[in-house]
């Protein structure tokens, strides 16, 4: 299980040094993400993608839940209306279709919605700072925090996310 740590770094040089130190500390590159304002240089950094910068994952999960619930309700109504040979199979099938449609439609909306988790960093990012998002094993949180505090006094620790999505 991993926890997500947030740090604000003042400039590109600090962000690059931090990236190198995390790699040397054996944090895999795909667990290190940077967010910067549009047009900011990102050479040498692993930029965050839509999975980290949008509400896609949360929206897909909500869509699956709501879609399957509505699909199950529709399946029950259809079972009463048509009197099928296997009403349970009808309910389960319609619930599965509802879950798929709910996941798909909600993920389309969520991919275009900025992440609520990153909302508090918008002003700092707009001012030119770089946001570091790093997912570390629970057992290494203290070690990584101490490393960054020691090597980057210019950086600001911004907290630990209590619930990191299993994907990404």
From TrEMBL:
The keyword Membrane appears for this protein: yes
Keyword annotations: Membrane, Transmembrane, Transmembrane helix
Membrane-crossing residue ranges in chain numbering: 64-82, 88-110
Keyword Membrane: yes
Top-level taxon of the source organism: Bacteria
Protein name as catalogued: DUF1269 domain-containing protein
């Amino acid at each position: 299980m991993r926890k997500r740590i947030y740090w604000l770094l003042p400039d590109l040089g600090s962000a690059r040094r931090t990236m190198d130190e995390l790699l040397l500390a054996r944090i895999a590159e795909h667990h290190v993400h940077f967010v910067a304002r549009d047009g900011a240089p990102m050479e040498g950094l692993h930029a965050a993608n839509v999975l980290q910068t949008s509400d896609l994952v949360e929206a897909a999960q909500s869509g699956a839940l709501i879609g399957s619930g509505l699909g199950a309700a529709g399946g029950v109504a259809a079972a009463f209306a048509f009197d099928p040979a296997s009403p349970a199979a009808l309910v389960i099938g319609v619930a599965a279709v509802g879950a798929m449609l709910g996941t798909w439609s909600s993920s389309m909306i969520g991919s275009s919605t900025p992440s609520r988790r990153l909302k508090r960093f918008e002003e700092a990012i707009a001012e030119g700072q770089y946001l570091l998002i790093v997912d570390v094993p629970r057992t290494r949180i203290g070690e990584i925090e101490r490393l960054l505090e020691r090597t980057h006094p210019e950086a600001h620790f911004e907290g630990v996310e209590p619930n990191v999505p299993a994907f990404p």
